[in-house]
Amino acid sequence: MGGEANPSSDAILRTFFNNHLMIFLQRPDATMVAGFNRWKSLGRFVKKGEKGITIFAPCKYKTKIETEDGDERTMQQVRGFRVVHVFDISQTEGEELPDLDAVRPKLLDGDAPEGIWDVLTAHAQSIGYEVVRHQRGSENGYCDFMTKQIAVRPDVSTAQAVKTLIHELGHALLHSEGPVASREVAEVEVESVAYIVCDALGLETGDYSFPYVTRWSGGELSLVRDTADRVVECACRILGSLLEHQGLTGPSNLPT
To answer: Where are the domains of the chain?
Structure first.
């Protein structure tokens, strides 16, 4: 897995899927996983003698390049992967986590890269969808196939708004033409799309995306694995529109 000088978005995305498979294969009963330090910050500690669950994490670096317009931009690149270890909550002890809220999907904080929202909105418009800021119930967003409308709740950070917009744009691109196998399949697909696109943008969404996908997949290996090809195609399509806007080429680099 390591040693690839500049992995493509396809490779990064497949690593995301493979990590789910690796967790389920090593510990099928896993429900909530986090790293050693993450559990420590939550007041829980890994039990003595527990063996970590091996997964891969991307090695990210920043570099400067010149665009076709002659401008210099700071880029984020993934240059291979490193082995890291996570632990299931059952392998830890310590303070109780009421309703496990501490390790459930967390809304993103901070700002998104400048101009990304506008590019994504234009992409949605190009396929016939209007983007609005609106909240329905407790949802972060929704995609209405009948009215051709994508909504994102208005009270979140720009980083979370962009992630939600990518998630809902994934629904529009993947699911508007006909029924899907199940809602579980649909949610696994679009959150995986959001994960890889946000990763390319330099937005760390693992604390949100991993628990989200794990919950919707219900621990089924085949469900996560079978969505891979569709997700790769959709993620690359969105990344392509972002790269085109920035005057760049190549699916694995985007300005941060």
So the answer is: 9-255
